[in-house]
Each structure stands twice: as C-alpha cells, then as structure tokens.
Write the structure tokens for this entry.
Amino acid sequence: MAGGGGGGEGEPEFQIAPMIDVLLVLLIFFMSITTTQVLKVDKAISLPVAPNAIKKDTSRSEAVINVRWDAAKKKATYLMDEKEYRDMPDLTKAIVSTKKAGEARVTKSENPTFRVVIRGDREATARSVSRAMNAAAEAGVSDISFSSVNKD
Amino acid sequence: MRRFEQNVNEGSLGFQIAPMIDVVFVIMLFFMVMAGSVQVERELNSQLPGNAETSGATDFVDEQVITIAENGEVSLNDEPMDSPTSRELPRFRDTLGRLKKASDQAKAPCLVTVVSEPNAKYARTIDVLDALAVVGISNVTFTVGEEE
C-alpha cells in the first residue's frame, strides 16, 4: 500500500504520467477512427452522396461488388474481392461461392441475412449497376444494398 | 565551439517531457480535425422482386412507381417532380411523405418501384433512394427500364 500514497498527506499536485497515458489513449482513438473507414473503399470509385442513408451494417455476411466507371470509354468494370469480372456468368458464380462460404461461416442452414453490396461510381449509368443486380439475382440473392457516403 | 563541447561533456541528454507533450497534443489535434471531415460509408437497402411461395391470400397493395429519365427528371406515377438538377427533391419528398402517412393510416405497406432509364445516372437513383430513406419507406425495388 506504500505505493498508493499521497492522499491526504500534502497538497494535490499535477501528475505528468497519468496525463500522458490519457493523451496516448485519445491519440490512438482518433487515429483508429480516421483510418478504418478510408482503407476499405476502392480508390478508383467515387461513391454517390446520400446524407440520409443508414449506417453500414457490418454484422452480416456479404459480397461486395465494385462497379468502376471509365468515363472515356463509357464502360463499367466489375470487381469483387479485387478480381475483375468481364463476363456476368463468372460474377454470378463468384457471388454463389461467396454466399456458400458466408453460409458455412454463420450457420449450417441457409443464411437469410446474406446480401450483396453494390459500390457503384456516381458517374456510372443505371444500366451498368443493373447488370450487377442481375448477377446477384441469378445467384439467388434478393437483398441488395447500395453503398454511398455521407458527404463529399 | 568551446561552449558546445562543454555542453556535451557536462550533462547527459535527459528525456524531456514537455516537448513530448507538445508533439502529442499537435498529433492529437490533427487527428481530431481529420475525424470530423472523414467520409463514412453508408448504405441504402432495397429488395429485388422475388417469387415467394404463399399458401394464404395475398393482400394487394398500392404500388407507387417512380421513373427517372435520362436527363435526371424524376416522376412519381408519371407526374414530373422538381427540376432535373435539384438534388434535394423537396416536392418529391413532400409528396412521398404524404403517401407514407396515408398508407400508415390505412395500415397498408407502402411499396415503391424505382424505374430508371438505362442511360440515366446512377447518382440520380441514389438521390431518389435517399429521399425514400428520409420519409421512411423501406419497401423499395429498383429496376431499369428495357431499351426500345
């Protein structure tokens, strides 16, 4: 108990060590919240702005389809897990395998919470996003989420 | 030169706490400011129309159809709303709010289908889905109109 002294004996004085502890904890907290969100998003995609959209639900198993848009060629590129898919049947197969893996991880029976998240570029056309949705539909997933950001 | 040598020889280079706190404060302020302007990923949910098996009778509900033209014009049940460049879509939101209230009072689900022209911008679809999220309509289906 000798180490905990100081209470009642003299004037309370400013302790530097606990202050540094608190500062470092705050520093780590702010560092973590500024980096986690930024790293996950494909840099080639500028997501559309939707200030009233709900916060992303991270508890569900999902397949993320990135829809990049080439403005010069007016052509969309579809990526899933950093792999490019030129043919839609291939993308459908990839969604099916991701769905199976997600189901096996969460429950052994069918996983009703599995969904497809579409991260489309804001300049993309509705048709290009629709093709990704068709791929999801053919894979048997009807729960679709569109990704957006809260501000520019 | 002589003075410098004296300093080196005289004392050991001790750990200075004050400049360290200064640096930590500056780094913390930097991250605090960055945390305010960081973009957070959000989501807008929709359901694809499916063919669910039902054993009982199915209630027919009023379906609202929203169309998005290639120039960005938004129409609700074939009635044009707001200007094609308006991102907030105030009139559209008001009308949707009234529809939602009416369907809530009738205890019927409010079902909305968004039909976009193939070459309309995806960002416009998100504007419409955002407006639907504001008024609290969750039964949303998104399709793209067939090309002629």
